[in-house]
Amino acid sequence: MKVLLTTTVFTGSLYHRMAEPARAVQEAGLDVEVTVQRGLKTVMAPDPANPDGPLVVREVDAQGADVVVLQLPKTREMLDCLRLLQAQGVAVVVEIDDHLTALPPGHQGHEVLVRRGVGRIAEAIAREADFLTCSTPNLLQFAPRGRGMVVPNAIPRRTAELPPAYEREPDVVTVGWAGTVGSHPYDLQEMGTGMQQALDRTAGRSRLAILGQAGNAQELLRLTDAPVEIPWVMDVDGYAAALGERFDVGIAPLRLDTFNACKSWLKVLEYSARGVFSVRSPSPEYERLGLGYRAKRPRDWATALTRAVEDPDWRREQAATAREVVLARHLTEHTAELWLSAWQKARDVRSRADRIGA
C-alpha cells in the first residue's frame, strides 16, 4: 500500500501528526510506503460552467498512492481535490487536531476560522472524506458517518531519552510555561493568584519563565514582576530539548471550554518526556493521560508549585515516574500500527464505495 501525506504549514502539527508518524511507520517495517510532502500537484483551469470566473481544480495527481491524507484542509479547492481523488478510486483521509469552529473570541485565529467561516469549510471536507484521523475523542464528531479513529499524540524516543530535567540541582527553580498568550487568551488566568502565591512563598528560590510570547502574562497572572521571556524555538526537536534544559517545573493551565475539551494532552506529555514535573488543569485529555499534578483552584496551583520548589526530592521522584510512563506507553513507535490501521480502513471504505457505484 502507498500512502501520500500532505501537510499543513503549522510546524507542530506537521511534526507530530505527519512527519513523525511517517517516520515511525517506516521504522517499524510495516507493509506500507509513506511519502510526506507539502500540498498536492494539481491542474487549475477555467470552470466550463463559468469560463470567466476564477480557475478551479480540474486534475489532481495522487502520485500512485492508494491513500491520500489531507492535513487540516480548509479551502474549497481542497474539497474539489478530495472529490477528484475519490473519483480516481483513491481513498482520502482527513487529519485534524483542533476544533476549528470553537476557537474563543480573543484567540488570534478566531477572525479567520470562525467569523470568516474557514473552520466550517474544514469540517465539511472532513465529513466527505473516506476516513478521519484525529488527536482526541471529542474530534470524532466530525468523522464521516462514524468512520474515524483517535490516534493520540506521542513522543519520539530520541526526545524522551534526552538527559532529563530532574537530573539538575538548580539553586533557583524555573517554573515554565510554553506558549503564546495570543493563542491562549484565557488559559493562564485559570491559575488566578496561585502563581504569585507560590512565587511569594518561595522568594529567591523560584522564578517564572515563558518559552514563547509572554504578551500581557504579567497582568493576567497578577504578577509583581514580569516573567522571564525565552524566545520560541521553531524547530520542534530543538523546542523539546529546550523544555528540559530551561524548565524544572512546567505549568499547563487550560480554561475548560469547548475548544480546550478537544485539545490534546501534548503539552503535559512533552514536559513529562523531558523529565519536567508538571502542574496542569483537569482538562479531559490531561485527565485521560493521567500525568502531572492536578490543579483546579488558585490554592491548588499555589500548593503544588510551592511543594515542587521546597521539596526537590518529591519533584524529581514525580518527574522520573512520569517520564517512565512516557517511555513505556506514549512513544511514536507505540502508535505506528494505529496510523497504518486507519489508512487501511480508509482504503477498504473507498474500495466498497467503488464496488457499490460500479
Distance from N terminus to C terminus (CA atoms, Å) equals 22 Å
Q: Give the overall shape, derived from the CA principal axes.
A: elongated
Number of helices: 14
- Structural class determined from secondary elements: alpha/beta
Helix content: 40-55%
CATH topology of the largest domain: Rossmann fold
Q: Report the count of strand segments.
A: 14
Largest sheet: 6 strands, parallel
* Average of pLDDT: 95
CATH class of the largest domain equals Alpha Beta
Q: Can you write the helix and strand succession as a string?
A: EHEEEEHEHHEEHEHEHEHEHHEHEHHH
In the CATH hierarchy, the architecture of the largest domain is: 3-Layer(aba) Sandwich
**Can you tell me the number of structural domains?**
2
**Strand order, largest beta sheet:** 2-1-5-6-7-8
- What fraction of residues sit in β-strands? 15-25%
Radius of gyration based on Cα positions? 22 Å
Task: Provide a descriptive summary of the structure in words.
This protein is an alpha/beta fold and 358 residues long. It has 2 domains: 2-154 and 332-357, Rossmann fold (3-Layer(aba) Sandwich); 157-329, Glycogen Phosphorylase B (Rossmann fold). 41% of the residues lie in helices and 22% in strands. The chain has 14 helices and 14 strands. The chain has helices at residues 11-27, 76-87, 110-115, 118-128, 157-160, 194-201, 217-220, 236-246, 258-261, 266-273, 284-289, 298-310, 312-329, 332-357; strands spanning 2-7, 33-38, 41-47, 50-61, 67-71, 91-96, 131-134, 148-150, 173-180, 206-213, 228-230, 249-252, 277-280, 293-294. The strands form 3 sheets. The chain has a 6-stranded parallel β-sheet with strand order 2-1-5-6-7-8, with helices on both faces. Helix 7 (217-220) links the parallel strand 10 (206-213) and strand 11. Helix 2 (76-87) runs parallel beside helix 4. The longest helix has 26 residues, at 332-357. The two termini are 22 Å apart. The model has no long low-confidence stretch (mean pLDDT 95). This is Glycosyl transferases group 1. GO terms for molecular function: transferase activity. Keywords: Transferase.
